[in-house]
């Protein structure tokens, strides 16, 4: 059954349940959370901790696929750990080398010294201010391109203002790269066309293991 969190209820005798079209209770044993955690927090705030769905998962009474703890993997600052020499050195050598080759330079935005892409050490904000054309600013915990500040969408003055403004909300700053595209067949207005699209892959994580993935091909911005 597809439902909203508002459709989930619980009581002492029945546990987690929802209701069918006739109002009859239907027990729920597995919840596949599709709602983004930031959206749930925006809707429920602190009350989310007492929501029937959250309580059933926290108590171990029901199984949740894509649980709240998986949100850690969605945060972009995880990639910053892979590109910072201070933390990348904690990885096995083969994984550290792979991260260095595949993950673009990224840092959680905050004042203080950091290792720059060229290997020298500098204050992160001082490094970022004059490099609007080479960097991208992104919210640490958001999706769908929301809140991204990049060269095509801002001026030098707006870039510098954004760098100061976002210090109050976790953001990452990332090396700007050209995103590769590939030809895909797209059905538009009843006609089949070939369009250049980006390629995105979201892995399915089971504990510390990645098994298969969900691909997507959004059009380039």
Shape: globular
Strand order of the largest sheet: 1-2-3
Average pLDDT number: 87
Uncertain regions spanning at least 5 consecutive residues: none
Largest sheet: 3 strands, antiparallel
Question: Treating each run of at least 4 consecutive H or I residues as one helix, how many helices?
Answer: 7
Structural class: alpha+beta
Total of domains: 3
Order of helices and strands: EEEEHHEHHHEEEHEHEEEEE
Strand content: 25-35%
Radius of gyration: 22 Å
N- to C-terminal separation? 35 Å
Give the % helix.
Answer: 10-25%
The tally of beta strands, per DSSP, is 14
Note down, in words, how this protein is organized:
This protein is an alpha+beta fold. It has three domains: 5-71, no CATH class; 77-175, no CATH class; 181-216, no CATH class. Helix content is 23%, strand content 30%. The protein has helices at residues 37-44, 52-58, 77-83, 85-88, 93-102, 124-128, 156-165, and strands spanning 9-11, 15-19, 25-27, 30-32, 63-65, 106-108, 113-115, 121-123, 135-139, 171-175, 181-188, 191-198, 200-206, 209-216. The strands form six sheets. It has a three-stranded antiparallel β-sheet. Strands 6-10-9 form a three-stranded antiparallel β-sheet. A hairpin with a 3-residue loop joins strand 1 (9-11) and strand 2. The protein is globular, with a radius of gyration of 22 Å. The protein starts with 8 loop residues before the first strand and ends in a 5-residue tail after the last strand.
